[in-house]
Amino acid sequence: MMQEAKFFDTAIKYLQLIILVSLLFYFGKPLLVPLFFGLLTAIVMCPVSRWLEKKGSSRSIAVFICLLIVTLLIAALAMLMIWQVNLLRKDAPAIIEKASVFIHNLQRQVAASFGMEQVQTNWGERLINGATGMAGAIFNAASSTFFMLFMIPVYAALFLYHRHVFVLFLQSIVPVKYRAQLDKILNQTIHTYFSYIKGMVLVYIIVGILNSIGLLALGVRHAILFGMLCAVMTIIPYLGIIISSLVPITIVWMDTGNMWFAVGVVVLFTVVQYLEANVIFPKVVGTQLNVSTFAILIAVITGGIVWGVSGMVLFIPFAAILKIVSDNIEELKPLNILLSRK
After folding, report:
1. Residue 124 pLDDT exceeds 50
2. Is the pTM of this model over 0.85?
């Protein structure tokens, strides 16, 4: 009886902890998402910083070089996005005119088929108003996205420069009996994050190939270029895939004058994104991290619920770190069975 009571007390404590952490993660999203992306970036750049320091550079110079690398990568993504937005802006009037004609003809065919009277509607004006509303929504998303991209290098630099402080903090809060495993866990975490980035690169290559094959089949100009760009731009949550997919949709519509080719591009990207989220990403990244596909899928779904697309990216390494911790702590071996890739 006492053992059962002890079990229920322990279960209630863990449940309370899970609820508390979930609430903290949900309401702390504006702070925690760029913070954890910065931590991820710092861990990936940590070997580079250490190598530069061993070569004689001061920590400040080493961190600056790492920060410059990260900033250049983010700037390259921003330039890609601006280039694609400019392409869309130039073709916007022709797109709206073609869309208006297509919808008008479709409405006329439906009215004729069902013997209904056609309602005269200024679809061009409606599309302009809808595009304006969508542009406002995209602008709001862009504002938060660019703020996050600005904060990531800042957090990464702080983590890199003060990494000894954070290690001392962890040593001070970890129970004495686990301190011997702490260095091993930290080193394995750095290796795991590197494997995670390697897995992400492989995912983008696979998605880019699938995009390119589909665009080639639909006869889109520069199919390989746009296929790879659309894969890379998914790094930017929400905004990247929206803008990058609009460019090939616009091109195929302008070239063929057929709306259904544009619909085909939309279907293509939808199918590829579904495969990426549910098959490619869990399988490839799970292999690189040595985490089970089941655990990766649960992490992706949980991350999507809590933080959206950003959570789907960040919760994967969270699961990998939890596996590393369970590898080194005997009490967490049952959890390790679920997380490990057999």
Report:
1. no
2. no
